């Protein structure tokens, strides 16, 4: 497919681009050769969206944006570029105009809300001894240990940053709900996915880290979105 989009993967809070490692391998096995993964500063929505826009602008041809967790808010804000042909949300925030990740979280608090703690510099962490049970309970304890030790904390203020013009109102979208998510309440994911009028919504019996625990199914959804946009 000559119009196959470049897949740009956008991570969320408490992780980096390497959280996509298993998905990258699966997409490569499916024949995708143009894959990028943004490394966000997690300092503000404006700066994170700006970094993503720069990555998108560097790509030749169409781009499919894929966001996990807070990365969904980033692709919602940054997805207005003309070469973005679709948005894929993986257990992700998909705020409307004027909404923030923090505001949506307050609608239905996630199970692991009590396991977050700020530091004296304004960064918000998942307690190291609670990371596995909070973020990725369906991964092995060793995988959870590594994720917890290498977590990338966001500035807490980023939770309150609001969306200006949501790209999902103009672009085709797909959504994966994690039904055992302890970081973004499944009820909030159901609400957001419903109002997207997504072309497809799937539900996985998975933790927040579905991109790591269920990479085959997540990659299949991304592949479906890429094929749909390539043939559009």
TrEMBL record:
> Which PANTHER family does its entry note?
AB HYDROLASE-1 DOMAIN-CONTAINING PROTEIN-RELATED, ESTERASE_LIPASE_THIOESTERASE DOMAIN-CONTAINING PROTEIN
Pfam families, A to Z? Abhydrolase_6
For this protein, the record's InterPro entries field holds:
AB_hydrolase_1, AB_hydrolase_fold, Sec-Metab_Biosynth_Hydrolase
* Protein name (database record): Pimeloyl-ACP methyl ester carboxylesterase
Which source organism does the UniProt entry give? Paraburkholderia megapolitana
In this chain the AB hydrolase-1 domain maps to: 7-220
């Amino acid at each position: 497919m000559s119009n196959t989009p470049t897949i740009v993967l956008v991570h969320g809070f408490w992780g980096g681009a390497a959280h996509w490692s298993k998905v990258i391998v699966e997409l490569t096995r499916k024949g995708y050769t143009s894959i990028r993964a943004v490394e966000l500063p997690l300092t503000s929505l404006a700066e994170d969206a700006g970094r993503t826009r720069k990555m998108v602008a560097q790509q030749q041809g169409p781009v499919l944006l894929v966001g996990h967790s807070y990365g969904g808010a980033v692709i919602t804000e940054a997805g207005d570029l003309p070469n973005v042909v679709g948005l894929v949300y993986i257990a992700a925030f998909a705020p409307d105009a004027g909404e923030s990740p923090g505001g949506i979280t307050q609608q239905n608090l996630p199970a692991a809300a009590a396991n977050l703690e700020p530091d004296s510099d304004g960064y918000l962490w998942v307690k190291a001894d609670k990371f596995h049970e909070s973020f990725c309970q369906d991964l092995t304890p060793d995988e959870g240990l590594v994720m917890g030790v290498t977590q990338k904390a966001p500035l807490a203020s980023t939770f309150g940053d609001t969306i200006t013009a949501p790209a999902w109102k103009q672009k085709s979208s797909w959504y994966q709900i994690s039904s055992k998510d302890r970081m973004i309440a499944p009820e909030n994911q159901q609400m957001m996915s419903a109002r997207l009028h997504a072309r497809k919504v799937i539900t996985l019996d998975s933790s927040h880290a579905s991109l790591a625990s269920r990479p085959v199914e997540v990659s299949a959804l991304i592949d479906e979105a890429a094929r749909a946009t390539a043939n559009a």
